[in-house]
């Protein structure tokens, strides 16, 4: 029986190294090809973003006459905007009683996206004559520069003497029922430019309230109709019977 030829250890090692080298070469070629494909995908994504932006700008222009018509109709409803704010869970948490009183004079809210909507937006608040400040309009703008760095700026509020709601000493909240009486005023937001990229209130107004403020104006009425604020069910015990203690008190 013929004996199999012996392969030197050196030859075996060389063959193994050659196989590893070939595998590495194929892997590197695959990586380079993946990179080329990824570049094509990135180009398509970039083109898609540009097309989406054009569509957004087109429909933003088409929406403007409807926004104006809606604002004209809202102007006929007293306290529309303060009611919408109070009914919004996130905004309501930022309001103290003095804020709510001042916002009774808010007649119009307007969100204006810049022509290049990627660069930012502006929120305008229009007020009737009021005892708190002399501004007829307060504005806060949010900007995104070419490097992607966010910034904001706003109208300085011209407070009447002793009426600055951003100063707690003038807040006059002591003794009031609100549990969050010591919180910063809603109007402090106009002067807060510390982290424009994380301005939740601006985003909530622009993306949540502004598209459909009517749903928040009507929120309290909807709660009353559905019993969302309690209703008769509050008087029932775990078995669905009226609480005897409450009946006794009556």
Automatic annotation (TrEMBL):
It is found in: Cytoplasm; Nucleus. The keyword Cell division does not apply. Residues 1-29, 144-181, 216-250 are annotated as: Disordered. InterPro entries: NAP-like_sf (IPR037231), NAP_family (IPR002164). Residues 221-250 have a biased composition (Acidic residues). Residues 8-28 have a biased composition (Basic and acidic residues). Keywords: Cytoplasm, Nucleus. Residues 148-157 have a biased composition (Polar residues). Its main location: cytoplasm. Gene3D superfamilies: 1.20.5.1500, Nucleosome assembly protein. It comes from the Eukaryota. GO terms for cellular component: cytoplasm; nucleus. GO terms for biological process: nucleosome assembly. Belongs to the nucleosome assembly protein (NAP) family. This is Protein set. It comes from Plakobranchus ocellatus.
